[in-house]
Fold this sequence. Notes:
alpha/beta; globular
Amino acid sequence: QSVVPNEQKIFIASIHRNSERILRTHWNEAVVNLAKHFGLKNVFVSIYESGSQDNTKGALRDLDFELKELGVHRTIELDKTLDEQVAEIMTPPETVEDGWITTPRGKLELRRIPYLAKLRNRVMEKLDVEAKMGRTYDVVLWLNDVVFTVR
Length: 151
């Protein structure tokens, strides 16, 4: 299905960790260009960042500022530091929760895929928030930390 600018509402979703270089050299500008291409009022940008060791948070703050200046609806959540994220991953809950398993070593450990799914769902929760405000979207576009262009 092709997407025609100004005819569809686009929900842009992404998760970042240690992505400062690509954000500053390509990604931020490409997201802004995508928003302009589809229409500034036709997009919502939902981004989650956690645990970066570089200045990914700073690069995303820059993107947040630019999108705000353009009037783009967005949520850019800058979460835990690396130390906080490691503590979360390495500290077993007091009661067994989804995503935690007892490994053959006899340790309760967090599995990677359920953890990442939880983060992706956090990004997608913004769809519900938007719907409650009367804004719905036709397309969900997940973008990785890769170089892309509008075309």
